[in-house]
Amino acid sequence: QVQLQESGSGLVKPSQTLSLTCTVYGASISSSSYYWSWVRQLPGEGLEWIGYIFYTGGTNTNPSLRSRLTMSVDPSKNQISLQLRSVTAADTAVYYCARIAENRGWFDPWGQGTLVTVSS
Amino acid sequence: IRMTQSPSTLSASVGDRVTMTCRASQSISSDLAWYQQKPGKAPSLLIYGASGLKSGAPSRFSGSRAGTEFTLTISSLQPDDFATYYCQQYTTYPYTFGQGTKLEIE
């Protein structure tokens, strides 16, 4: 059974960088059959796709966040990472990692999510 | 692509048949998924390809498509079904979600 687990800083100051890691259990992140994605959920609101990364390091990201975003993959640790620079209160959200099968577009499964609060 | 779900809130009782809708602002073929989310939990995939039921998901859930309008139907509501439901299109980047339909106990 594939499981994903997010970890990282729960509190970030405005203008600083948000950093999160997603560890994958039960599957190899180096599989050519899957992409590994980030999705966030703003408080009381809907869901926003952030982007995804392939094991080769190739990415596809949401243009609304692209200029502040870095995604990376570490196959040796079976992890992906997210960095979002110059954060504001508007970046306060629950951040999820999720898997997408190649040539598909739906997210399954999801991690349990981690709340990141941007506040001084 | 904008995804618009209706209604925002739906009140129903155990045993009811319920339907909720998701409309895409342009053609997305059948590239639509439905998710269920319970409070404090991550979304969970129910339907993909507009009408494909995820393996292990209850058969009382079904999805359909009519042009750019998509429907999620629960044939007989169970207590475990009270949750928020989201649709998502994956035909065009960026992937986008609807704002959700909250299914409440009447």
Characterize the largest beta sheet of chain B: strand count, sense, and whether it forms a barrel: 7 strands, mixed
User: Total helix count of chain A?
Assistant: 0
- Strand fraction of chain A: over 45%
Q: Average pLDDT value of chain B? A: 97
Q: Low-confidence parts of chain B lasting 5 or more residues at pLDDT below 50?
A: none
- CA radius of gyration of chain A: 13 Å
Q: Which descriptors would you attach to this protein?
A:
heterodimer; A: 120 residues; mainly beta; four-stranded antiparallel β-sheet; 0% helix; B: 106 residues; seven-stranded mixed β-sheet; 11 strands; 50% strand
Brief rundown of the structure:
The complex is a heterodimer of chains A (120) and B (106). Chain A has strands spanning 3-8, 11-12, 18-25, 34-41, 47-53, 59-61, 69-74, 79-84, 93-101, 107-110, 114-118.
How would you sum up this structure, described in words?
The complex is a heterodimer of chains A (120) and B (106). Chain A starts with a strand and ends with a strand. By secondary structure, chain A is mainly beta. In chain A, the strands form two sheets. In chain A, strands 2, 4, 5, 6, 9, 10 and 11 form a seven-stranded mixed sheet that branches. Chain A is globular and about 40 Å long. In chain A, a hairpin with a 5-residue loop joins β4 and β5 (47-53). Chain A has strands spanning 3-8, 11-12, 18-25, 34-41, 47-53, 59-61, 69-74, 79-84, 93-101, 107-110, 114-118. Helix content of chain B is 0%, strand content 50%. Chain B has strands at residues 3-6, 9-12, 18-24, 32-37, 44-48, 52-53, 61-66, 69-74, 84-89, 96-97, 101-105. In chain B, strands 2, 4, 5, 6, 9, 10 and 11 form a seven-stranded mixed sheet that branches. In chain B, strands 1-3-8-7 form a four-stranded antiparallel sheet, with no helix packed on it. Chains A and B meet through β5 and β10 of A and β5, β9 and β10 of B.
